[in-house]
């Protein structure tokens, strides 16, 4: 449909000035914000058709090329005449606003123009692979406007950003629009944004925060600085979400992080009165968490944090060690090893506290957890007043598991505590020492029925087995099983007594048969049993023969208990005492007065045992025997008499025999075992490797034995030499640092 | 039969003559050998115990005075080495023969003169280690004895190494007498001490590395030396 009279092909100039220019000025008016907002369909179609005609006319009247040039020319003209001058007049924020407006207008202009000229897109442009109308149109703006103003625009934006950083309110929407411009102007490429804006912005940001940081580091304490730093980071993150491109976030935050935190890592964390070590000391959990949060991605910082944490935990531990040393030294306040209990309890508390830190403040970070473990490994292996932690831990556990321990705990709490004990064991290198002490104390608990509960006993063994392996707990498990079997055995014994026409024993006899090898070694002595008891023992021996002929029974009277009825003048009292003590007292059934040597001969006991037992009967709380002279301790010249005048308000009393200090023996036994273990390990390794260098042998031996203990290098060297002397190994002739296995 | 037989008989006779000559040479040399052997044995018998037919400590002492050498002199030890003697204080006839044969001597004079040569030979590096180890084994007098008491060790070290490594020997023997960890020394420690003298710079001990497989007694020695310096 033509509106004009078609008298022939349209001349270019005619077509342009008659028709197009009108349309274009109309467009400009629209852009200026005046008159009307849009072209109507008819107007649009008219203009489109003019172009169409001018393009499809036969040469020399096809004006495609000219039209394409004119299109661009037209836009450029508009820019030169109208847009640029108006922009040049304005500055800073106002210039930005103008820029945004002009850009918006430009897009509209290009949109309409390219619609009018769109026929060109289809054929002329496509055929010649020229830039599309829209592209070409936008490029005009890029070349003329953006090129000239981009630095000013960039700087203006950066200025505004900095103002906002200083706390002023700025027009965020404006900035967003400007940034969008930088992005859109790239027409697919982010170069204009990145090189034209982002790079400079980042440099400026770094400078900005660098300045701030150098002030703040002096002004503020560590926690306050950290707060500010976190605030800044959050604000920057916000900034990106409001008006920067999302791709900027990572690198922007990195720069800020670097200037504020990385550069000042050491100064911050090691600040004298407010650094990390102080925060840890004062339990500033939140501050510590913040520090971790902000620093954990930075390797060097993390290492520093881990180190400081380790030092702190270690020094707290060493304080406890020192306290214990001082307290134990002052023996007056250390009855029953109370100080060791306190120490152990405090160590467990310390462990809980800082494990909490690891979990909550440090998100269970691997490096920090490792530092924590190392700290514990250091101070848990320090000796306290000559005793090792291994011993204390065993004593502590004994206290929990025995009746009448220093703490009254519920089942739940006991279970929890046992769990903690086993966790603590992981840090102690002398695990074999712990095992031996534990076994000795377990034995006492089991044999004297002092254990709080069988379930708890089994439970801790299960935990120990999980952590240290089956070999670690096999003997202890055997001990517990032995007792169960012993009860069964006792039932059979009772049956035996009932069934056979055995003359009554005259007393109740309970025998506990232990499997040698599971239990600690107890020396047996040739105690002369009172006649009454001899018969019982014989009867049991016969009974045992009926059960098995292949085993030998060794009687350990030092572990036995007797209930005697003491017929005192005032009233009879039941005495619960050890077999040795009972044997001694029964002698007084036949004699009124006995000398020390009399008793010794009759009982056939060694002096050290005899003195101890007589002391417990004559110089301790309950004086069952009268001693003359009435001195405080027993001497070989003393005489003893039955104290018929003895009485007590209770009808039943326990007369304990103080136990011998087993510590020295335990340490000796463990050392012996260690020598044996090192030998066995060396032989095992050499047997399979046949030939091995010294350093490697050392390493493998230490590794093999680490579940039990940490072998001293000198010990290993000595054992190697011993094995050489015993012809298990020899040195290589060529290389004296190599060893060969001798089959 | 004429010529041939003559030749044959000639040949025969010359052969037999030759044989006789060879024989006589042989017998002459074997006579010489036997003479030598006789002299050696004679010498042996001079000092050997008549009843046991062994040269015992008394005999050896007499031998030493004949040689004008003290019986604790290291050269006697070297002689024992040359003989591959097994028991300290005793020489068997075989050992005596072996030793003197190796030294190519058969009289007391010759033996005396051979001693300096023997010393030189022992000190040659290819022989010394062998001699050094031999001397330790030689001092293990009891059957199945594997260790030498410290006092004897000190004397032995002084005797055997004193001329070459005087400072090491003096320090080490001082240390051995002071320390109480070891009451005896075994073969492994003995052999390594020689290596110590050969390899470790003394007295600074700069290149001694405790991380190597030196016997513990040497580690302790080095520690003691370093403490002494402070």
> Within the largest sheet of chain A, what's the order of strands?
1-2-6
The CATH C-level class name of the largest domain in chain B? Mainly Alpha
**Mind summarizing the main beta sheet of chain B?**
2 strands, antiparallel
Parts with pLDDT < 50 across at least 5 consecutive residues of chain B: 1-5
Main beta sheet of chain A: 3 strands, mixed
Give the integer mean of the pLDDT values of chain A. 88
| 3D shape of chain A | elongated
Which sequence of SSEs, written as H and E, runs from N to C of chain B? Answer: HHHHHHEHHEHH
Distance between the termini of chain A: 113 Å
CATH architecture of the largest domain in chain B: Orthogonal Bundle
Can you tell me the residue ranges of chain A where pLDDT is under 50 for at least 5 consecutive residues?
none
How many strands of chain A?
Answer: 9
Structural class label of chain B: mainly alpha
Approximate shape of chain B: elongated
The strand order across the widest sheet of chain B is 1-2
Determine the N-to-C terminus distance of chain B: 104 Å
Average residue-wise pLDDT of chain B: 83
Tally of structural domains of chain B:
2
Q: Any overview of this molecule?
A:
Chain A: Pfam families: Cullin, Cullin_AB, Cullin_Nedd8. Chain A: This is Cullin family profile domain-containing protein. Chain A: Keywords: Isopeptide bond, Ubl conjugation, Ubl conjugation pathway. Chain A: Belongs to the cullin family. The complex is a heterodimer of chains A (743) and B (230). Chain A has helices spanning 12-31, 41-56, 64-89, 92-116, 118-128, 133-165, 172-184, 191-219, 222-243, 248-262, 265-269, 276-281, 285-295, 299-329, 338-360, 366-379, 389-401, 411-425, 431-447, 454-468, 470-499, 531-547, 579-587, 596-603, 607-618, 663-689, 694-705, 713-725; strands at residues 561-567, 572-578, 593-595, 625-628, 639-642, 652-654, 691-693, 729-731, 738-741. Chain A is mainly α and 743 residues long. Chain A is elongated and about 160 Å long. Chain B is mainly α. Chain B has a two-stranded antiparallel sheet with strand order 1-2. The termini of chain B are far apart. The interface between A and B is medium-sized, with 13 and 14 residues.
């Amino acid at each position: 449909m033509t509106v004009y009279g078609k008298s022939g092909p349209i001349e270019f100039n005619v077509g342009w000035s008659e028709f197009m220019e009108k349309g274009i000025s109309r467009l400009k008016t629209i852009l200026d914000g005046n008159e009307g907002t849009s072209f109507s369909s008819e107007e649009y179609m008219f203009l489109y058709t003019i172009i169409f005609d001018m393009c499809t006319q036969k040469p020399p009247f096809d004006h495609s090329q000219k039209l394409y040039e004119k299109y661009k020319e037209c836009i450029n003209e508009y820019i030169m005449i109208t847009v640029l001058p108006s922009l040049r007049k304005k500055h800073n924020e106002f210039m930005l606003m103008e820029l945004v407006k002009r850009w918006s207008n430009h897009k509209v202009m290009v949109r309409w123009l390219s619609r009018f000229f769109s026929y060109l897109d289809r054929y002329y442009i496509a055929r010649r692979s020229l830039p599309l109308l829209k592209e070409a149109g936008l490029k005009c703006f890029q070349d003329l406007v953006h090129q000239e103003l981009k630095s000013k625009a960039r700087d203006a934006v950066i200025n505004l950003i900095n103002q906002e950083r200083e706390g002023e309110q700025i027009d965020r929407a404006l900035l967003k629009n400007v940034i969008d411009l930088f992005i859109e102007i790239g027409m697919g490429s982010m170069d204009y944004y990145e090189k034209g804006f982002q790079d400079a912005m980042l440099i400026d940001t770094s400078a900005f925060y660098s300045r701030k940081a150098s002030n703040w580091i002096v002004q503020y304490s560590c926690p306050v600085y950290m707060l500010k730093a976190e605030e800044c980071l959050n604000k920057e993150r916000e900034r990106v979400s409001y008006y920067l491109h999302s791709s900027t976030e990572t690198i922007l935050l990195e720069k800020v992080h670097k200037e504020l935190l990385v550069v000042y890592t050491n100064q911050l964390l090691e600040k004298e009165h407010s650094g990390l070590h102080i925060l840890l000391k004062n339990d500033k959990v939140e501050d510590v968490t913040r520090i971790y949060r902000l620093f954990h991605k930075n390797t060097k910082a993390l290492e520093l944090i881990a180190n400081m944490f380790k030092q702190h935990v270690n020094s707290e531990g060493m304080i406890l060690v020192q306290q214990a040393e001082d307290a134990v030294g002052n023996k007056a306040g250390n009855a029953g090893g109370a100080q060791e209990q306190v120490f152990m309890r405090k160590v467990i508390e310390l462990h809980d506290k800082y494990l909490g830190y690891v979990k909550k403040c440090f998100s269970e970070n691997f490096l920090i957890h490792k530092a924590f473990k190392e700290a514990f490994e250091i101070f848990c292996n320090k000796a306290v007043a000559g005793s090792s932690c291994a011993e204390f831990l065993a004593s502590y556990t004994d206290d929990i598991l025995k009746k009448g321990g220093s703490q009254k705990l519920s089942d739940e709490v006991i279970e929890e505590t046992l769990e903690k004990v086993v966790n603590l064991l992981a840090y102690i290198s002398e695990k074999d020492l712990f095992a031996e002490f534990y076994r000795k104390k377990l034995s006492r608990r089991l044999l004297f029925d002092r254990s709080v509960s069988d379930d708890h006993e089994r439970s801790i063994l299960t935990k120990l087995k999980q952590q240290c392996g089956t070999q670690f707990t096999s003997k202890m498990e055997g001990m517990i099983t032995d007792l169960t079997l012993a009860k069964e055995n006792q039932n059979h014994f009772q049956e035996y007594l009932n069934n056979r026409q055995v003359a009554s024993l005259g007393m109740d006899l309970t025998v506990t048969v232990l499997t040698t090898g599971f239990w600690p070694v107890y020396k047996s002595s040739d105690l002369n049993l009172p006649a009454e008891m001899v018969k019982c023992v014989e009867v049991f021996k016969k009974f045992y023969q009926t059960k098995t002929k292949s085993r030998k029974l060794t009687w350990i009277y030092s572990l036995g208990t007797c209930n005697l009825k003491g017929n005192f003048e005032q009233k009879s009292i039941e005495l619960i005492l050890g077999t040795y003590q009972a044997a001694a007292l029964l002698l007084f059934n036949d004699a009124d007065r006995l000398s020390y040597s009399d008793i010794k001969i009759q009982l056939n006991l060694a002096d050290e045992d005899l003195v101890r037992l007589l002391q417990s009967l004559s110089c301790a709380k309950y004086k069952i025997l009268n001693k003359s002279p009435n001195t405080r301790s027993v001497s070989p010249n003393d005489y003893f008499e039955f104290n018929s005048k003895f009485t007590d308000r209770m009808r039943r009393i326990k007369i304990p025999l103080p136990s011998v200090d087993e510590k020295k023996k335990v340490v000796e036994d463990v050392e012996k075992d260690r020598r044996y273990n090192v030998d066995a390990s060396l032989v095992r390794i050499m047997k399979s490797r046949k030939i091995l260098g010294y350093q490697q042998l050392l390493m493998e031996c230490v590794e093999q034995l680490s579940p039990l203990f940490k072998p001293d290098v000198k010990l290993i060297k000595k054992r190697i030499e011993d094995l050489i002397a015993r012809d298990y190994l020899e040195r290589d002739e060529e290389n004296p640092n190599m060893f060969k296995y001798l089959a | 039969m004429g010529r041939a037989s003559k030749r044959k008989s000639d040949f025969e006779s010359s052969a037999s003559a030759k044989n006789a000559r060879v024989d006589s040479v042989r017998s002459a040399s074997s006579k010489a050998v036997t003479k030598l052997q006789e002299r050696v044995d004679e010498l042996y018998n001079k000092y050997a115990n008549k009843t046991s037919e062994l040269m015992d400590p008394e005999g050896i002492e007499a031998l030493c005075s004949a040689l004008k050498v003290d019986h604790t002199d290291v050269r006697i030890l070297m002689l024992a080495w040359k003989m591959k003697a097994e028991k300290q204080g005793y020489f068997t006839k075989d050992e005596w023969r072996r030793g003197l044969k190796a030294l190519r001597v058969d009289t007391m004079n010759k033996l005396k003169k051979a001693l300096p040569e023997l010393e030189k030979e022992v000190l040659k590096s290819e022989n010394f280690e062998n001699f050094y180890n031999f001397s330790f084994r030689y001092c293990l007098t009891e059957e199945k004895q594997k260790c030498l008491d410290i006092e004897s060790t000190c004397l032995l070290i002084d005797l055997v190494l004193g001329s070459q490594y005087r400072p090491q020997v003096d320090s080490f023997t001082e240390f051995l007498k002071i320390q109480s960890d070891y009451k005896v020394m075994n073969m492994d420690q003995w052999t390594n001490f020689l290596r110590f003298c050969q390899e470790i710079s003394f007295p600074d001990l700069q290149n001694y590395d405790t991380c190597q497989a030196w016997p513990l007694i040497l580690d302790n020695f080095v520690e003691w030396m370093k403490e002494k310096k402070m």
